[in-house]
Amino acid sequence: MYKIWTILVLGIAYILYSGWIYNDATDFGTTMSAKQIEGKQIYQENNCQSCHQIFGLGGYLGPELTSVMSDKNRGEAYARAFLENGGGTRMPQFNFTKQQVDAILDYLKYVDVNAQPMENIAN
Ligand code: HEC
Fold first, then answer.
1. Which amino acid residue places its CA nearest to atom 41 of ligand 1?
2. How far is the CA of 41 from the centre of ligand 1 (A)?
3. Which residues of the chain fall below pLDDT 70?
4. Which of 70, 88, 95, 114 has the most C-beta neighbours closer than 10 Å?
5. What is the pLDDT of residue 119?
6. pLDDT tens per residue across span 44-79
7. Which residues contact 42 (CB under 8 A, 6 or more apart)?
8. How many C-alpha atoms does 67 have within 13 Å on its Cβ side?
9. Number of neighbouring beta carbons within 10 Å of residue 67
């Protein structure tokens, strides 16, 4: 008799816990805004990932962009300059509208806020 109850209690606990993990537990309250989604689409449609990495994924011709927005040596104005003018001979000039540039930068902000700095991972 005890065995049945133990199995039932554990089974129900397992189901509830799984439901919680798959729904709320991994939601950090950082859902994307419409503008950020637009920025992500522009990023994907223009194959930025063929040259740049985000969260470690992507090509290696251009610099990592995960923390470009909060990087004290780069930051928003620096990133904007590249998107508006292209960079040297390797970063293409895309001729984006101001609205498109704003959306991309907003998406990169979202990426940055959700990134874990290496020092946090190491500890
Ligand atoms: C053909 C490869 C290539 C593609 C495609 C490309 N980039 Fe770049 N990008 C580069 C290179 C190379 C640099 C660095 C240029 C330099 O430092 O002179 C760069 C620089 C940048 C920078 C400045 C950051 C930094 O640390 O220098 C940003 C922001 C950026 N790219 C965003 C984008 C976005 C967004 C897209 C897609 C719309 C994109 N890039 C597409 C090659 C590329």
1. 48
2. 16
3. 25-29, 116-123
4. 70
5. 64
6. 999 999 999 999 899 999 999 999 999 999 999 999
7. 96, 100, 103, 104, 107
8. 9
9. 17
**Nearest ligand 1 atom to alpha carbon 78:** 23
Ligand 1 site residues (CB inside 6 A) read 43, 46-48, 50-52, 61-63, 65, 68, 74, 79, 82-83, 87-88, 90-92, 94, 104
For 68-90, letters b (16+ CB in 10 Å) and e give: bbeeeeeeeeebeebbeeeeeee
Architecture (CATH level 2) of domain 34-122: Orthogonal Bundle (1.10)
To the question of pTM greater than 0.70 for the whole model, the response is yes
Tell me what pLDDT residue 33 has.
92
Give me ligand 1 centre to Cα 40, in Å.
15
